[in-house]
UniProtKB/TrEMBL annotation:
Entry protein name: ABC transporter ATP-binding protein
Segment forming the signal sequence: none
Top-level taxon: Bacteria
Gene3D superfamilies xref list: P-loop containing nucleotide triphosphate hydrolases
Organism: Rubrivivax gelatinosus (Rhodocyclus gelatinosus)
The entry's keywords: ATP-binding, Cell membrane, Membrane, Nodulation, Nucleotide-binding, Transport
Amino acid sequence: MIEVRGLEKRFVQGRGRQARTVQAVAGVDFSAADGRITGLLGPNGAGKTTTLRILAGLIEADAGSAAVDGIDVATRPREAQARLGVLGDARGLYPRLTARENIVYYGRLHGLDAGRANARAEALAAMLEMTPLLERRTDGFSQGERMKTALARALVHDPANIVLDEPTNGLDVLATRALRETLRRLRDQTGKCIVFSTHVMQEVERLCDRVVVIAHGRVVADGSVDELRERAGTPDFEEAFVRLAFADEGART
Ligand SMILES: Nc1ncnc2c1ncn2[C@@H]1O[C@H](COP(=O)(O)OP(=O)(O)OP(=O)(O)O)[C@@H](O)[C@H]1O
């Protein structure tokens, strides 16, 4: 279970009189339940990545709070991280290490012994259909191979909650389908709480039980795909998104 309340974050770029403030997140609230896939949907620059980075404990919020299974990420970061698997946008694999070493290394950081970390790497590789990649250095991996390795690494400690930042970025149709299948399996078979950010409508329609629409750093709508369509008064989800996300700017096409 993930809960975000009144989250705010601004960035200051430059110094002195040249300094410019960007309000990246301006009061985001949402909850993501166990056994559900929740999508953060928003246009470029809406504040999705910043929200997820705060949740992952990578940056601090200026105001508000984020909690994983009721544990505040700012005040009890290690406990919160133990319950959270994070697939970041940069993937960040160590190129000189093999896929197995990348996964096991993270397992060890999360306190698993070597035997357990290796067993988890093998089980996850089987689930993600990447066993033949395990002993290869990640240097030179394709986008899909990187994503699988990074996802296995994020899941190595079997967290109850998973956060993914634009997980299908750069993936082809088959890899995207495989990822969708994996996320559904994690939801249905193990009841994980899954949150992912995207700006791909199709992905949200096919995968999400709940959608949180973010625009200009704020939540502008929250509900199932059907509820959002109904609320926007259109059967076309893309049109519904545009109406909800850009309501204050007049509808665009
Ligand atoms: N480290 C930073 N320094 C300065 N500005 C930042 C920083 N990180 C994010 N921003 C700004 O905050 C705003 C929100 O960015 P964020 O990456 O959270 O959006 P997003 O919804 O994930 O967008 P996208 O879909 O394009 O990835 C943007 O205007 C961005 O330029």
